[in-house]
Amino acid sequence: MSCRVLLTLLLSGCAWSISTNRTIDDEKGDSVSGLVPEYTPPGAWHQGSTCSICTVHLDTEQVLDGTWHDTTHSPDDPEPRSITMRFNGTAVYVYNVIPNTIANTNTGTNLTFAIDGALVGTFTHTPSSSTEFDYNTPVHSSTDLKNQEHTLVIQTVGDTSPSLILFDYVVYTFTDDSDSPASTSSSSIQVSIY
Ligand SMILES: *[C@@H]1O[C@H](CO)[C@@H](O)[C@H](O)[C@H]1NC(C)=O
Ligand SMILES: *[C@@H]1O[C@H](CO)[C@@H](O)[C@H](O)[C@H]1NC(C)=O
Ligand SMILES: *[C@@H]1O[C@H](CO)[C@@H](O)[C@H](O)[C@H]1NC(C)=O
């Protein structure tokens, strides 16, 4: 008795990609490239864990890498405060720490999010009477982005009432489709066993 098996694997026109999440920490920056966020105006921002004049003191165990960025935009400030980040990816998620009641401190939050110059979202929070902070709070997400470099700008809106931001980190989805067989040539593998 003879046995013959013929296996043909055709990979023509087959597109595939691999997506992985990467983080951009407020202080350390991009987990792969090391690119750090830009804070403007620079003098208006503080890295909270080393800030002695800040009224917000967080639990460093509950923020990514023990750091966060803190600023308050008040109605008499000439310009808003912003964070600018660049990334190559198809989705982006922003995580902040949300403050509630702190004695003698304005803790309302009012933010806008723009990607590549277009407004994509807002976030507002009216403090509760609790003195707890809400850690790892998703304040914005944008998915289904074109797979290319994007610029995300987070901006405070404090022109009518003060806006406090405690920025922790961003997660973005890096999608590698550079090795897709469809983008090179189609290939076929044939295995014969006699
Ligand atoms: C990336 O993180 C977001 C938010 O947690 C999640 O919804 C998404 O499924 C993750 N994507 C990948 C490829 O792990
Ligand atoms: C995005 O990818 C391009 C092409 O690889 C690279 O030149 C650019 O520096 C990357 N941008 C960021 C923000 O990593
Ligand atoms: C956020 O700011 C906008 C623009 O000043 C204002 O219209 C809106 O009422 C504010 N929202 C909150 C919840 O403070």
Helix and strand element order: EEEEEEEEEEEEEE
Question: In the CATH hierarchy, what is the architecture at level 2?
Answer: Sandwich
Share of helical residues: under 10%
Strand content: over 45%
What is the domain total for the residues? Answer: 1
Query: Mean pLDDT, as a whole number?
Result: 89
CATH topology: Jelly Rolls
Fill in the keyword field for this structure.
194 residues, mainly beta, Jelly Rolls, 7-stranded antiparallel sheet, globular, binds 2-acetamido-2-deoxy-beta-D-glucopyranose
Report on this model:
By secondary structure, this protein is an all-beta fold. It has a single domain, classed as Jelly Rolls. It is 0% helix and 49% strand. It is built from no helices and 14 strands. The protein has strands at 5-10, 18-25, 29-30, 38-40, 46-47, 69-73, 82-89, 91-98, 109-115, 118-125, 134-142, 148-156, 163-176, 188-193. The strands form three sheets. Strands 2, 3, 5, 6, 8, 11 and 13 form a seven-stranded antiparallel beta sheet that branches. A five-stranded antiparallel beta sheet has the order 4-7-12-9-10, with no helix packed on it. Strands 1-14 form a two-stranded antiparallel sheet. Strand 9 and strand 10 (118-125) form a beta hairpin. It is globular and about 80 Å long. The structure holds 2-acetamido-2-deoxy-beta-D-glucopyranose (NAG) (3 copies). Residues 19-21, 93, 171, 173 line the site of one 2-acetamido-2-deoxy-beta-D-glucopyranose (NAG). One 2-acetamido-2-deoxy-beta-D-glucopyranose binds next to strand 7.
